[in-house]
Amino acid sequence: MVNLTKLTKLSINQSIFSKMGNITIKMLAKELNLSTAAVSKALRDSHEISEGTKKRVLELAAALNYVPHPYAGSLREKKSNTIAVVIPEVADSFFSLALNGIEAVAIANGYHALIYLTHESFEREKTLLKDLESGRVDGVIMSVTMKTDTFDHLKSLNKMVPMVFFDRVCEEIDTAKITTNDEECGYQATQHLIDSGCKKIAILSISESLSINSKRIQGYQQALLENGREGDPASIIDYGEDSVENFEQLRKVFREVDRPDGIVATVSKMTTDIYLVCMELGLRIPQDVKVVSFSNDSTVAILNPSLTTITQPAFEMGELAAGILFKALKKKYLVLSEESTVVPSQLFVRNSTSSSV
Amino acid sequence: MVNLTKLTKLSINQSIFSKMGNITIKMLAKELNLSTAAVSKALRDSHEISEGTKKRVLELAAALNYVPHPYAGSLREKKSNTIAVVIPEVADSFFSLALNGIEAVAIANGYHALIYLTHESFEREKTLLKDLESGRVDGVIMSVTMKTDTFDHLKSLNKMVPMVFFDRVCEEIDTAKITTNDEECGYQATQHLIDSGCKKIAILSISESLSINSKRIQGYQQALLENGREGDPASIIDYGEDSVENFEQLRKVFREVDRPDGIVATVSKMTTDIYLVCMELGLRIPQDVKVVSFSNDSTVAILNPSLTTITQPAFEMGELAAGILFKALKKKYLVLSEESTVVPSQLFVRNSTSSSV
Hints:
- 2 copies of one chain form a homodimer.
- Chain A has 357 residues and is of the alpha/beta class.
- The first copy, chain A, folds into 3 domains: 4-68, 434 Repressor (Amino-terminal Domain); 77-179 and 315-343, Response regulator (Rossmann fold); 182-311 and 346-353, Rossmann fold, CATH 3.40.50.
- Chain A is 42% helix and 15% strand.
- Chain A is built from 14 helices and 12 strands.
- In chain A, the strands form 2 sheets. In chain A, strands 2-1-3-4-5-11 form a 6-stranded parallel β-sheet, sandwiched between helices. In chain A, strands 7-6-8-9-10-12 form a 6-stranded mixed β-sheet, with helices on both faces.
- The radius of gyration of chain A is 26 Å and the shape is elongated.
- Chain A binds chain B through residues 89-91, 93, 95-97, 99-100, 103, 107, 112-117, 119, 124, 128, 131, 269, 271-272, 275-276, 279, 297-299, 301-306, and chain B through 89-91, 93, 95-97, 99-100, 103, 107, 112-117, 119, 124, 128, 131, 269, 271-272, 275-276, 279, 297-299, 301-306.
């Protein structure tokens, strides 16, 4: 704690400090008659510096409103030329494309990107982030697991290195977030199914704690509401990690008399299950069931039938996230949260929602 | 060079050495009246040890057939609990599945896997491997780029840490290699097309320097030969990195009067191009052109038409590679090359090669 009453007694050399905007360690050192190294160590609460000296440094720093760059220390001392990318998986075209965008920027900046996969395990995410606190990397780009529902591990790492979130962001952390217009896309996909003649539209939901998922569902509900449809809670189908259970559940849903005639898949990998269940039950796409998927798969145009998609700007989102991270690594003062960007996705209409077949 | 004539003069304490199998540094130290640290440094050719002492140590080590574990030093001194996985890309279901296999084993062993992507750049592969020589990781699992045609960077890293290759292996490095039966599969795919009635079979080739590619092509040529077909060199189509050029080339091939009526895609991503070109030119699959792809894509069953594949045991190959690496990290004596394994792939016949449509 800085004793503010004492500050008035400090002999501050006004001629040095009056004109400048940014207070530097060098200025503090000169005023306190200490070495810059000593001031730097005092600011980092080093055991090498006496409590008395630490107090003097902190009081002057506070009086002059000295704002240290939170990461400058680690960067100057031990630059790893490495960033970490922490993502749930790569067996998904969204993440693999985003990764390519991140890598393109990292390579251009002379950096290595270390890729860490959480495999949707919250425990693993916590372990990996703890490991990153050791200073192995200069910055982190990440997308959280579908189970991440507490945020202390993110806050803790964010104090050590700059972090940028993309797609599956954490609203609780005050930093840059690169997202797409998920709510609008949920709305757009649903409205497109309504326009194509669907009467009962279901949506597959991956995780209640993921903001992208809840936003897509909000958009879905909004479209139903605006079209005077009842937001039937039974039409929101939980899609978990057990592939056998997922398939069984879809089979059950489509066997019902009151089955959906339109479905929104909020992630790409649901598509194969939907197509296979329909095939098995003799339901024709699009005549009996119309399908829209959030997907970046390269095969969507050659599916049977070709798939209507909401396609996210995956590569661009990765590029943007990395661009902001490198800006933070180069600049001393950057308010990361001000760099947040929303990049719109795009609806591509193909045969899986055709009403003229 | 060890002077063998001198060895007879060494006063070896037979009572110490007669019964044991493994000679340890401690034994050498005792016999030479040196500290274990000095022996260890001498064996590592440290500048801290005089040439005379080094010579004494090396001579005794040679006489007693002392075999140092090549990586024991780095492991004892600085265990990172981290392995590196160096692969060309993740936007390919083979590599993303193999990665999942590797990670499953790494996690079970309490290790982190750092994933490095080369993006098929030979230069990048060299830079990344140089970086790994710093001792950041305890071991490396890798699949080389399609341009890797010299091997000094691999040999150099292999001296520092244990390496295991999978899929795209480097024959020049004497270590464990996990592969699938590529030649047999090239043969099997081609024979299946012949059996399905194809008269002119082409194969898409990704890289002349990759062993997996040349083996698949050898199998293709062998099948043609055994069926009394001429191995038409024009039927081996180079498929590079430029997606526009690739598409244009396929279009040209299928526009010819003497076009192929069967095609083998040696990697999964070629499939979309083949299907789209056929669609554009009004060629029906399988009636006009039959297709077999090496693929692990989850969508193969819902393509239009469903795709006949050679499916590699991707996850299992990753698991095996990691299993061997951890065995090497735990055991003192392991001849890695003896751990090489060939895991067979499987042909799944679907509609893209049907002769009854």
